[in-house]
Write a structure and sequence with these properties.
It is a single chain. The chain is α+β, with helices and mostly antiparallel strands and 100 residues long. The protein has one domain: Alpha-Beta Plaits, CATH 3.30.70.330. It contains 2 helices and 6 strands. A 4-stranded antiparallel sheet has the order 2-3-1-6, with helices on one face. A hairpin with a 2-residue loop joins strand 4 and strand 5. The N and C termini lie far apart (52 Å).
């Protein structure tokens, strides 16, 4: 079963290709996603890597947590699924006039 890994404290210049090559040393990489700002398109400094097996993910997390890449020490650990909160509304909106 695939295991999703959180990669934080990344340089804004670290690319998906760099992460793929880095993690591929420890096993099969299923996917890589560097999170970007929707307005500027710039990287936000974190991303996710999905490894094909739990063993590969554990090996990568152990070896890469704290490793310096592009001048920054990576924070690498198991990604936590974001819980779906049915009580939360989706996004903003509404009239600005009610705030004035």
């Amino acid at each position: 079963m695939a295991k999703k890994i959180y990669v934080g404290n990344m340089s804004y210049n670290t690319s998906e290709d760099t992460l793929r090559q880095l993690f591929a040393q420890y096993g099969e990489v299923v996917s890589v996603n560097v999170i970007t700002d929707r307005y500027t398109g710039r990287a936000k400094g974190f991303g996710f890597v999905e490894m094909a097996s739990d063993d590969a993910a554990r090996a990568a997390m152990g070896a890469l947590n704290g490793r310096e890449v592009d001048g920054r020490q990576l924070k690498v650990n198991e990604a936590n699924d974001k819980p779906r909160d049915s009580n939360r509304g989706g996004g903003g909106g509404g009239s600005k006039s009610r705030y004035y």
